[in-house]
Design brief:
The structure is a single chain. It contains 24 helices and five strands. The chain has 579 residues and is mostly helical. The protein has a three-stranded antiparallel β-sheet with strand order 3-4-5. The chain starts with 9 loop residues before the first helix and ends in a 7-residue tail after the last helix.
């Protein structure tokens, strides 16, 4: 994630959203102090724009006998070594026995087959009705024909799945490989993002470790569905925007005038007039958001939310730098470049993802523009491929908004955070002596898309905590986490009549882990707390983390399809709605 220059405390975060007061603080601020709004210190503006990363202590390494120089070196390495070790742990979990169950489970009946078809034809062909059994047969058969089929998701995620199939073949390991890889990389990203956001290597690694042991993320990392791919690009976009924020604020800080005392002060000409220049990390975020939308359309909500959030970050930075009219200055100097770097880049990326369909002639609706219906209307001057693609998108939109077919595992978004109705991807009940079952009562094998319960239930309290931090302590970090959760969660309330599932929530699971890590940091205690306070807090936080890890281990057989006795399976069905 590069050099860390983000804010260190909620006090710094509060300062970024409030102008320098000419005198006494406003009445509303004095009232909010009763709820925890901190008093803003009068500090060097550069320190508020670009606070230094807290100097980590080498005491931990000294305990193991490391000398001062070695301890300092190990402390520096921890910023990358810690996240890499957590990601390695997550990767071992996800790749271990990845080809099991050797079945086509749940919606793997769609995306791996579409991905293989893209490799063969550049568009989605048609598979025989018994293709699933043939794929895992002995020997396997590929019952694919070039006749186009109607698909309702963009191709980007399927192209990624196809990479694994191209290397390892059309088998369960091959079609799950890339999803497992992206799931592992997302853990690494969250470690680094958490480090930058929360100003602590330990809390960043904790956020990644929590993601590594979340059951829903784990199951989705081992299943060839599209939602985890969307999640990966969303997390990558979030990280890019954080880096862009830090670099932009550093540019403003460098332009501020310095007084005779060496202290930088707010300057109206800098805050209102400075052009922020080339911002490659914002363009990278637009690319990632385009790839998310090119995998599933719910990535569009993140495009809108993150683009708005990034512009508000610019407003706050200009205000801190001394702008008298930060909103107007941002509107004049930043909004149009931001639109180009995010929306325009994302749209171009989305169109590029359809290049296989555009370059070939066999795709569904590919020649619609040449039909009598397609030759009429006001847009006939546009290229045929573009009009055919637009027609395809409108048909897909009608399908998604009108999808109300009942499903046994559908759920209302109101129940998602408490894991009201998980989705069973695979279930078998082998008898004694079959498929590794060794007990007379018989066994159950299931792959259940269920988040680690204690993690999710603790995250509900964490969301309330970050909401408090955002509303009453004006902490931009809490606001960023809430924005990411809201963009992945709240839009589904618009489609409560639609057939939707709990596993859609995997897109915002990483941000639940960030919220929980932020709350655990508060439990441990802020800097300056007494040794007794931090010891008690560390013990309480440690107990919570260990309970979450135990909870993941307890449900591990249900995440991997391991055969367990029927009685053990029933003990894990904590609620009737989980069956």
């Amino acid at each position: 994630m590069g050099r860390v220059t983000s804010d260190t405390t909620a006090t710094d975060a509060a300062a970024q959203y409030a102008p320098e007061p000419p005198g006494a603080p406003p009445v509303w601020q004095r009232r909010l102090r009763r709820f925890g709004l901190p008093v803003r210190p009068q500090t060097d503006v550069r320190a508020r724009l670009v606070p230094a990363f807290p100097e980590p202590s080498g005491r931990l390494w000294a305990v193991f006998g490391a000398g001062p120089e070695a301890a300092a070196r190990l402390t520096r390495w921890a910023g990358w070594a810690g996240p890499l070790l957590v990601a390695l742990f997550a990767g071992v979990l996800r790749f271990w026995n990845l080809g099991s169950p050797r079945k086509v489970i749940f919606d793997e009946t769609y995306y791996p087959k579409d991905a293989w078809s893209l490799l063969q034809y550049g568009y989605e062909g048609t598979w025989a009705k018994n293709a699933n059994d043939a794929l895992v047969g002995h020997p396997p058969e590929l019952l694919l024909s070039p006749e186009h089929s109607y698909v309702v998701h963009p191709p980007m995620g399927k192209w990624l799945i196809a990479l694994g199939e191209g290397v390892f073949g059309m088998n369960p390991f091959g079609w799950r490989f890339m999803v497992a890889l992206l799931g592992t990389l997302s853990v690494l990203l969250i470690c680094r993002i958490g480090r930058r956001l929360l100003r602590s290597t330990a809390l960043g690694c904790l956020a990644g470790a929590l993601l590594a042991v979340d059951g829903l993320h784990f199951v989705m990392s081992r299943t060839a569905l599209l939602d985890l791919i969307v999640m990966f690009w969303v997390v990558a976009a979030f990280g890019c925007l954080l880096v862009d924020r830090d670099r932009t604020r550093a540019r403003l800080a460098a332009a501020l005038p310095v007084g005779p005392d060496g202290v930088a002060r707010p300057d109206e000409s800098v805050g209102d007039r400075l052009r922020l220049g080339w911002r490659p990390w914002r363009i990278a975020a637009g690319l990632c958001l385009g790839l998310a939308a090119a995998t599933k359309w719910n990535g569009l909500y993140y495009l809108a939310a993150f683009a708005l959030m990034a512009v508000l970050w610019d407003v706050a930075a200009r205000r801190t730098a001394g702008a008298r009219r930060p909103f107007r200055s941002t509107l004049r100097r930043d909004v149009l470049p931001a639109f180009g770097a995010t929306v325009v880049v994302a749209v171009a990326t989305y169109l590029a993802s359809w290049s296989g369909w555009i370059a070939t002639k066999g795709g569904y609706y590919r020649d619609w523009a040449t039909t009598p219906e397609g030759r009429t209307g006001a847009w006939v001057w546009l290229p045929d491929w573009l009009r055919s693609l637009w027609h395809y998108q409108t048909e897909v939109y009608s399908f998604h908004t009108g999808l109300t077919t009942p499903h046994a595992y559908q759920s209302n978004p109101w129940s998602w955070l408490v894991l009201g109705r998980p989705v069973s991807y695979f279930y078998e009940d082998p008898k004694a002596g079959q498929d590794g079952c060794t007990v007379a009562e018989g066994c159950a094998r299931e792959v259940l898309a269920l988040g680690t319960p204690l993690l999710w239930w603790a995250a509900c309290f964490a969301l309330l905590y970050v909401l408090y931090r955002w509303l009453f302590q004006r902490d931009w970090r809490a606001g960023a986490i809430l924005c990411a959760v809201a963009a992945g969660y709240l839009p589904w309330f618009l489609y409560q009549e639609r057939t939707i599932f709990l596993f859609y929530a995997v897109v915002f699971v990483p941000f639940l882990c960030l919220a929980l890590a932020m709350m655990i940091g508060a439990i441990i205690g802020p800097p300056g707390s007494t040794e007794r306070r931090r010891t008690i807090g560390a013990v309480g936080a440690g107990v919570l983390v260990l309970l979450i890890a135990w909870n993941f281990i307890y449900f591990y057989p249900l995440y991997t399809g391991m055969p367990i006795p029927k009685s053990a399976w029933h003990h894990r069905m904590w609620f009737d709605t989980w069956v």
